[in-house]
Amino acid sequence: GDSVTQMEGPVTLSEEAFLTINCTYTATGYPSLFWYVQYPGEGLQLLLKATKADDKGSNKGFEATYRKETTSFHLEKGSVQVSDSAVYFCALSTSGNTPLVFGKGTRLSVIA
Amino acid sequence: EAGVAQSPRYKIIEKRQSVAFWCNPISGHATLYWYQQILGQGPKLLIQFQNNGVVDDSQLPKDRFSAERLKGVDSTLKIQPAKLEDSAVYLCASSLGAKETQYFGPGTRLLVL
């Protein structure tokens, strides 16, 4: 079945450091790919998405590129802030009437 | 625009008791989802509604879990009787349609003792 694998956390970075959170997927067909973020005490929020190969999703300084050849959708940010501390989930949805399949999440802590 | 509302936010019960969660989706959203998020894992779909009909409940433990979406708006998820392993956050999400972006509520954190 469809699945998402993302790097284990927690990830601890200093403010202004470069962030990469790896995500790879297995899916039948051509999925849409998503990054969701969960800030402490809050619900899941869509961070960015990409619906076809080579698309780049971006939001709040975060970027991820849909790489079909490597079945990956790695999340990057050039300079993280303390306010980026959260849990990040990679997810996919295949075409048709299917729900999101999530990875296990990666906890990011940014220290000043 | 109001988001997805859920209540209660927290619930503590003893095993074998029953519990119910409520969700009010974003106005106009036809598709509603219930997810279970166990600590340290990603959310897992329990049930998906399209209007007031069930689209997918293949991962719902039907011997103890039930859900309904009367009139195609609000939804309730019930557990009866609860087990220790049901301790989790229960997330409700809604979308305009099945292929549209899902918007999540804050979740209900359940602890079964």
Structure description:
The complex is a heterodimer of chains A (112) and B (113). Chain A is mainly beta. Chain A is built from no helices and twelve strands. Chain A has strands spanning 3-6, 11-14, 19-21, 23-26, 32-38, 44-50, 56-59, 62-65, 75-77, 86-93, 101-102, 106-111. Chain B is mainly beta. Chain B is built from no helices and eleven strands. In chain B, the strands form two sheets. In chain B, strands 2, 4, 5, 6, 9, 10 and 11 form a seven-stranded mixed beta sheet that branches. Chain B has a four-stranded antiparallel beta sheet with strand order 1-3-8-7, with no helix packed on it. Chain B is globular and about 35 Å long.
Number of strands of chain A: 12
Helix content percent band of chain A: under 10%
Helix content of chain B: under 10%
Largest sheet of chain A: 6 strands, mixed
- Report the uncertain regions of chain A: none
The amount of beta strand of chain A, in percent, is: over 45%
Rg result of chain A: 13 Å
The geometry of chain B reads as: globular
Rg value of chain B: 13 Å
Report the mean per-residue pLDDT of chain B as an integer: 93
Q: What is the N-to-C succession of helices and strands of chain B? A: EEEEEEEEEEE
Helical run tally of chain A: 0
How is the main sheet of chain B built? 7 strands, mixed
Ends apart, CA distance between termini of chain A: 41 Å
**What coarse outline of chain A follows from CA principal-axis ratios?**
globular
Structure classification of chain A: mainly beta
Topology:
The complex is a heterodimer of chains A (112) and B (113).
Chain A lengths: L2 E4 L4 E4 L4 E3 L1 E4 L5 E7 L5 E7 L5 E4 L2 E4 L9 E3 L8 E8 L7 E2 L3 E6 L1
Parallel strand pairs in A: 2-12
Antiparallel strand pairs in A: 1-4, 3-9, 5-6, 5-10, 7-8, 8-9, 10-11, 10-12
Chain B lengths: L4 E3 L2 E4 L5 E6 L6 E7 L6 E7 L2 E4 L8 E4 L6 E5 L8 E8 L7 E2 L3 E5 L1
Parallel strand pairs in B: 2-11
Antiparallel strand pairs in B: 1-3, 3-8, 4-5, 4-9, 5-6, 7-8, 9-10, 9-11
